[in-house]
Design brief:
Length: about 350
Amino acid sequence: MQKICVVPGDGVGSEVIDSTLNILECLDLPLSFERTVVGIESFEKNGAYLTDDALSLASDCDAILFGALTTPNDRNYVSPLLLLRWNLELFANVRPAKCLNPEFCLSPLDLVIIRENSEGIYGGMERELDDGKIVTERIVSEAGCQRIIDFAFKYAISNSRKKVSCVHKANVLRASDGMFKKLFYGSAVNYAFYNKIKSDDCLVDAAAMYLCKEPDIFDMIVTLNLYGDILSDEAAGLIGGLGFAPSANIGEEHALFEPIHGSAPDIANKDVANPTGSILSAAMMLEYLDMTNKAAVIWDSVKAVYSDKNKWTKDIGGNCGTEEFTWHLRNEINQQAANR
Ligand code: ATP
């Protein structure tokens, strides 16, 4: 029995996690679930957004299933998600954007973005100078770049992808992004030779434009932290919106799975949040735990549900709230499981 640490978090986090657990429950999996409170509720109860107990539970479990967090108006706030990524060394953020039905996608996209997750500009190193200017430091290391490049090519091989594009801003950030691009091509030669994986590179501003205009020029993107964060939201827009995009945060010893959206306070507690991104994140978790058949049941069932307009969620113009969509998906999964 493998143990999953469940962190619902704030806002729509608990709604999409309840839906996801409901779906996992009907798959009869050898998993046990342990919930922990992180975020604003934890701060109100314990005086810390991420307690030592929550961190130690997360690191003891085989995987973490995470909802979403609200950023409070607190100068000293450091996101528990960032703390988990740093403490558990979750260096690779895998963000697939796969169109489930061309009727509600702007593009029939099937793209995977691999985002460096442990360095870059999200390190929390901001300081105010005497003249009031703010300095934000950005870390880009050779080891960090090489690690994410290798991860991306290995992912490409094991998932039968055809091309990896390096997205950067090396024309301006010559030392940092220039190193990233150089290391990328250093590795690409080997992967192209042995595994026939193609490679190219693109400036991040051009990549943002091509994602809108000709998204199918991309198959996989490997990129640095900030660029990956922004481009993956753009890619989600092409496949129906933030509610559709799952993600995995992977390290050598730990892994955390979460939808890419935030806590969306504007729609919280209204039964309108789309739980698809969270449910597909759980499918990615099952792949990570070597339960690929069960993961495939989730992906196939989600696709089947979205083939029927009567079962569409509200964010794409359908009528189903979170609970009704979950109910349809559960029925589909039970049917698919019975037929396999
Ligand atoms: P963060 O900074 O944590 O990413 P945010 O408020 O900027 O948070 P989100 O919480 O991701 O961004 O949401 C942006 C908007 O997208 C929300 O206001 C909401 O309307 C929509 N949205 C996000 N998640 C979902 C979802 N699961 N289902 C439907 N709509 C969603």
